[in-house]
């Protein structure tokens, strides 16, 4: 619901993500990427309606699971998250070290009393926390800082460290490179890639940084106005043939190292989607069919002219 209206924020989002693979979900701001991530964590607002299913490797359907199951066994355990606004997800009164150590402790099912700082368990816990910080390029010198003492880029890296230490088999990383310099973007992306590939975890990487997507993804899904309009192997997407959907081609052409031409116009309001293809108003190839009929996703692309 948006302003009392019913909004179809995400629909037709069909994909499979295998262990060891990274799917990059790209698309303009407001197209529904974070809503999709929230759905996969069972974190949609209480008044949200869902249809279909979202099955984890063990068969659990997250969309049908009850809150207790989600809280105890899904969030942070089977599905990890690097949230889009990390600062909002950190507890203001706890240091980053405390966040990391608490996560390790919780996952090990241990209580604070049984893991005193000076015991061997305590040392292992501190090491795990430090190692995760290091992997996320979070400086050890800042571990005892509180969230409000961190810049946006540092809070981002703290959130990535927390997700890495959490070690869930499926990780959702929602714009995890926001506010980072190019070299840190590369470092974060490479770390997430090895986290995924080497240990057979799955990664859904949400990003509007196509260069980051190219570096990490096995598959690219392009979202437009709440729908996946193209899903294609990264090698094809970034290769000579390129994507097939005009919007996906437009995203690539907007890159400075390519044509540097932004897609003209703006996406439609989700509450007032046109009857046909949602991209028709911005598409040079659109005709009467496009304006009348919504193209289904066939062989990885939703376009009447692909
Ligand atoms: N709780 C909500 N109530 C109403 N509309 C929402 C809610 N959450 C998201 N939306 C709408 O859903 C659309 C997609 O949002 P979002 O998934 O955050 O986009 P993205 O992550 O791709 O930038 C936006 O138009 C947003 O306004
Ligand atoms: Mg978002």
UniProtKB/TrEMBL annotation:
It is a peripheral membrane protein. The keyword Transcription regulation does not apply. Belongs to the ABC transporter superfamily. InterPro entries: AAA+_ATPase, ABC_Ni/Peptide_Import, ABC_transporter-like_ATP-bd, Oligopep_ABC_C, P-loop_NTPase. NCBIfam families: oligo_HPY. It is found in: Cell membrane. The keyword Cytoplasm does not apply. It holds the Pfam family oligo_HPY. GO terms for cellular component: plasma membrane. Residues 1-250 form the ABC transporter domain. This is ABC transporter ATP-binding protein. Keywords: ATP-binding, Cell inner membrane, Cell membrane, Membrane, Nucleotide-binding, Translocase, Transport. Coiled coil: none annotated. GO terms for biological process: peptide transport. GO terms for molecular function: ATP binding; ATP hydrolysis activity.
């Amino acid at each position: 619901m948006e302003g009392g209206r019913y909004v179809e924020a995400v629909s037709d989002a069909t994909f499979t993500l295998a262990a060891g693979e990274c799917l990059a979900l790209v698309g303009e701001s407001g197209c529904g990427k974070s809503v999709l991530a929230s759905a996969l964590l069972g974190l949609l607002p209480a008044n949200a309606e869902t249809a279909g299913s979202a099955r984890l490797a063990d068969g659990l359907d997250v969309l049908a699971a009850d809150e207790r199951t989600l809280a105890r066994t899904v969030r942070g355990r089977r599905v990890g998250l690097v949230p889009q606004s990390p600062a909002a997800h950190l507890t203001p009164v706890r240091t980053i070290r405390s966040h990391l150590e608490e996560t390790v402790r919780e996952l090990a099912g241990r209580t604070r009393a049984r893991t005193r700082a000076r015991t061997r368990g305590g040392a292992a816990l501190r090491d795990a926390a430090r190692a995760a910080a290091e992997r996320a390029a979070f400086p050890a010198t800042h571990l005892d800082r509180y969230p409000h003492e961190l810049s946006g880029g540092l809070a981002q890296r703290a959130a990535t460290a927390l997700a890495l230490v959490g070690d869930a088999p499926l990780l959702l990383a929602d714009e995890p490179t926001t506010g980072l310099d190019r070299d840190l973007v590369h470092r974060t992306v490479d770390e997430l890639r090895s986290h995924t590939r080497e240990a057979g975890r799955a990664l859904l990487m949400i990003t509007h940084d196509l260069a980051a997507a190219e570096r990490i993804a096995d598959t690219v899904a392009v979202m437009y106005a709440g729908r996946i309009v193209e899903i294609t192997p990264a090698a094809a997407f970034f290769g000579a043939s390129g994507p097939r959907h005009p919007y996906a081609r437009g995203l690539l052409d907007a890159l400075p190292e390519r044509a540097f031409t932004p897609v003209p116009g703006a996406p439609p309001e989700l509450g007032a989607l046109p009857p046909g293809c949602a991209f028709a108003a911005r598409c040079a190839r659109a005709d009467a069919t496009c304006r009348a009929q919504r193209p289904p996703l066939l062989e990885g692309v939703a376009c009447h002219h692909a």
